[in-house]
Design goal:
- This protein is mostly helical.
- It has two domains: 264 residues, ABC transporter involved in vitamin B12 uptake, BtuC; 76 residues.
- It is 73% helix and 1% strand.
- A two-stranded antiparallel sheet has the order 1-2.
- The two termini are 31 Å apart.
Length: 403
């Protein structure tokens, strides 16, 4: 299986880079694959990826966690509150604790009391938003530099890593704007340019998750709780305990994502800071087929799209052209595999997007904001037959009951 998956992944990455290089040349948006853009994309992928990883832990144990947004909001507040008083590292720890408490509360509602998981997740989102707004007004309004919707500045910064021996020569090649070569150089140099220590730690967490869930007895038991909890119970697995652990870990990861937004991205807690990244994280988990590797790739893509709205308008116009080319390629592949109706639909969509690219000189930032959701819909439409959630994902479980 692994031998077949790796060539596909490499083929997808190569194809994506080729399309991106063609897009850069045709649109003239040379910043699309610059070192700065790629480095920023890896950074903005962190909160999305951590939310997706949190959703993966929860759903692998059979609990659908749409409360990730609320847990991430709790994390941003915890980071802002503790970081303002005790520094960035304390803010990081506080964010994890706040997120974990949100996950634990979600577990009490769903695992112990059997509240519908969607309802409970929605309640956590509302609670996280309302509670942090109240506490912000209570604690930050009279604080120096704070306000009703913002904490004072978080003092201290988390370390960043730049390996100049690799980043500098590759950046020089990237600035030559050579077809494909410069784009590959920009991508690689971004991996070694001004990366937060939290970004590196997030990459390690993805590897750690893969190892724990698929190579340890603990991971096997946790996944059995999401595949068939009744069978797992009959073999002595404490299913509810593993569900509790999963949702608590899920919340702590979402809280860690909130810490990145508050400490690394802005140095303050601010209301509305998460901007739906918890929900986008769930989309990356679906995109990645409930696997760490796929979730990481999805987070990187969405982080890249998120970065473009912060750069100049030419990048967003380039994104529209990239979407056009991608839709046409997908349409051709669908038609070749006999999925005629889907292929025609994607071709029409691509033509419409291409017409928009040709008729407009610029696009508003909202185009980049909706792109992650459109990407998720494309994945669901083209790969829905291959997506496989855990068999008992979202199904209520009661100890001692038969299925």
């Amino acid at each position: 299986m692994k031998k077949r998956v790796l060539p596909r992944v490499l083929l997808l990455i190569s194809g994506g880079l080729l399309l991106l290089s063609i897009t850069r040349v045709l649109s003239g948006a040379n910043d699309l694959t610059s070192t700065g853009t790629m480095s920023a994309a890896f950074g903005l992928a962190v909160p999305i990826g951590l939310a997706g990883l949190g959703g993966l832990w929860s759903e692998r144990a059979g609990v659908v966690n749409i409360g990730l947004e609320g847990m991430m909001i709790l994390g941003t507040f915890g980071a802002g509150w503790a970081g303002w008083q005790y520094g960035a590292w304390a803010g990081l720890a506080s964010a994890v604790i706040f997120g974990a408490l949100g996950g634990l509360l979600f577990g009490v509602a769903t695992v112990t009391f059997g509240v519908d998981q969607i309802v409970a997740g929605t309640a956590i989102n509302i609670l996280g938003l309302g509670l942090t707004q109240y506490l912000a007004k209570l604690l930050f309004t009279t604080a120096p530099g704070g306000g009703a919707t913002q904490s004072p500045i978080i003092y201290g910064k988390l370390p960043t890593v730049t390996i100049n021996a690799i980043a500098d020569p590759l950046t020089k090649i990237q600035k030559q704007n050579w077809f494909l070569i410069s784009d590959i150089s920009g991508l690689i140099s971004g991996l070694f340019y001004q990366l937060s220590i939290l970004t590196i730690f997030t990459v390690a967490l993805f590897g750690f998750t893969k190892w724990v869930l698929w190579n340890t007895a603990f991971g096997l038991r946790l996944r059995s709780a999401g595949e068939n909890p009744w069978a797992a119970e009959s073999l002595g697995v404490r299913v509810n305990l593993y569900k509790y652990l999963a949702v608590t870990i899920s919340g702590s990861l979402a809280g860690l994502g909130g810490a990145y937004l508050a400490i690394v991205a802005s140095s303050v807690y601010r209301g509305g800071q998460t901007a739906g990244r918890g929900f986008i994280g769930l989309a990356t988990m679906i995109f990645g087929n409930w696997r760490p590797g796929g979730t990481a790739v999805g987070a990187a893509i969405f982080g890249y799209i998120d970065t473009l709205q912060l750069r100049d308008d030419a990048n967003i116009r380039g994104l529209v052209l990239f979407g056009t080319l991608l839709l046409v390629v997908i349409a051709v592949l669908l038609l070749k595999t006999g999925r005629r109706n889907s292929g025609i639909a994607f071709m029409i969509f691509g033509i419409v997007m291409g017409s928009a690219f040709l008729s407009a000189n610029s696009f508003p930032p909202e185009v980049a904001q909706v792109a992650p959701y459109l990407t998720t819909l494309i994945v669901l439409a083209t790969a829905s037959q291959r997506l496989r959630p855990p068999s008992a994902d979202g199904i209520p479980y009661r100890k001692g009951e038969t299925h």
